Automatic annotation (TrEMBL):
One Pfam family hit: Acyl-CoA_dh_1
This protein's record includes keyword Oxidoreductase: yes
Protein name (record): Acyl-CoA dehydrogenase family protein
Annotated InterPro entries: Acyl-CoA_DH_CS, Acyl-CoA_Oxase/DH_mid-dom, Acyl-CoA_Oxase/DH_mid-dom_sf, AcylCo_DH-like_C, AcylCo_DH/oxidase_C, AcylCoA_DH/ox_N, AcylCoA_DH/ox_N_sf, AcylCoA_DH/oxidase_NM_dom_sf
Keyword annotations from UniProtKB, A to Z: FAD, Flavoprotein, Oxidoreductase
């Protein structure tokens, strides 16, 4: 029999993060969102809780937990706010995890202790202004010259790349030509403040306003030869495997947003009165909220299943794509329904539902669009 009950340790973590989200994040995140400001103090507190080190061994400053523990924490944060949830997801999945999975022991010891404690953040630069879903069309280049990589190019939509805590960005770059004539793409770590590395201003975004997203540019940016992360020519393949894991985490985030829509709608339906009684007594509202709960619960099962296979060491790409596709579209559906339940208040930015509505759409785009997920699922089934 399958058993999706959380063990005692993971349940304790979930409750701790839930309490933190309600008592620390919820009262103040709306102001950060309206000011379009990164909540550095909140992120540091997340570090103090050990959230950034959840899936890493204790020898590098981590908690010795699992990737599923990280997903549970992300879901609970996203029930209140997606900006802090994506900061954690990107900081671990895209920032620290490539160093842990593919970096040298020297790189791990240099960077991971501060990344695991949240004293520092790392980012990963894959997407380029003209690339989008075609990440293999990398134009950024890196050539070896006198024991240094000389990096030239630009990256777009990079999370956690310009905060006061950011110390490192790992970027993919063309480092040569493969024997078959294709591009040799490698991953190279570039510390913040390196001459020739310019961080653009914060994007003006529809949602995730309290998270940090920027464009990066590199002009004859020189880093030592040992800044290569993993094998030369394996950068793109490495990142594809990182994306498989990341999609499980994004699914957890989307599930959290979908569940947050249920939480807020249940609360509002019990207090908002129309025509002399709470709107929750109207069957139309009851059915709408019930459908939202069904979607959120099913999304949770989808990412639990993907995480289960991942932790067992089994192939999980199809399950990760299913979870990411379904939960991201569920998040959009629930945000729309929650806004409808709230009426005019659902259209106000200061309400959680207003933020959920703005934050949901990017989940169908980031870390692989819904169309990409459908393509991956079909290919894994042998179609096309």
């Amino acid at each position: 029999m399958l058993d999706y009950r959380l063990d005692d340790e993971t349940e304790a973590l979930r409750k701790t993060v839930r309490e933190f989200a309600l008592e620390v994040v919820a009262p103040q995140i709306g102001d950060f969102y309206e000011r379009d400001e990164f909540p550095t103090a909140i992120v540091r507190q997340m570090g103090d809780l050990g959230l950034f080190g959840l899936p890493f061994p204790e020898e590098y400053g981590g908690s010795g937990g699992t990737y599923f523990d990280l997903c549970v924490a992300i879901e609970e944060l996203a029930r209140v706010d997606s900006s802090v949830a994506i900061t954690l997801e990107a900081g671990v999945s895209l920032g620290a995890m490539p160093l842990y999975r593919f970096g040298s022991e020297e790189q791990r010891k240099r960077w991971l202790p501060r990344l695991c404690t949240g004293e520092a953040l790392a980012a990963f630069g894959l997407t380029e202004p003209g690339g989008g879903s075609d990440a293999g069309a990398t134009r950024t280049t890196a050539r070896l010259e006198d024991g240094h990589w000389v990096v030239n190019g630009s990256k777009a939509f990079i999370t956690n790349s310009g905060t006061d805590l950011t110390e490192l960005v790992t970027v993919t770059a063309v480092t040569g030509t493969r024997p078959d004539g294709g591009k040799e793409i490698s991953a190279i770590a570039v510390p913040s403040g390196t001459p020739g590395f310019t961080v653009g201003p914060r994007y003006s975004k529809v949602g995730w306003n309290a998270s940090d997203t920027r464009e990066l540019s590199f002009s004859d940016c020189r880093v030592p030869e040992d800044s290569l992360v993993g094998e030369r020519g394996r950068g793109y393949a490495q990142f594809l495997s990182i994306l498989d894991e990341g999609r499980v985490a994004i699914s957890a985030l989307a599930t959290g947003l979908a569940q947050g829509c249920v939480d807020e709608s249940v609360r509002y339906a019990g207090t908002r009165e129309a025509f002399g009684r709470p709107i929750g007594r109207n069957q139309a509202v009851q059915f709408m909220i019930a459908d939202m709960e069904v979607r959120a619960s099913t999304a949770r099962l989808a990412y639990y299943r993907a995480a289960e296979k991942m932790l067992r060491g089994e192939p999980f790409r199809r399950e990760a794509s299913i979870a990411k596709l379904y939960s991201s579209e569920v998040a959009v559906d629930n945000a729309r329904a929650a806004a409808q339940v709230h009426g005019g208040y659902g259209f106000m930015n200061e309400t959680p539902v207003g933020r959920f509505y703005r934050d949901a759409k990017i989940l169908e785009i980031g870390e692989g669009t819904s169309e990409v997920q459908r393509m991956l699922i079909a290919r894994d089934l042998g179609v096309g």
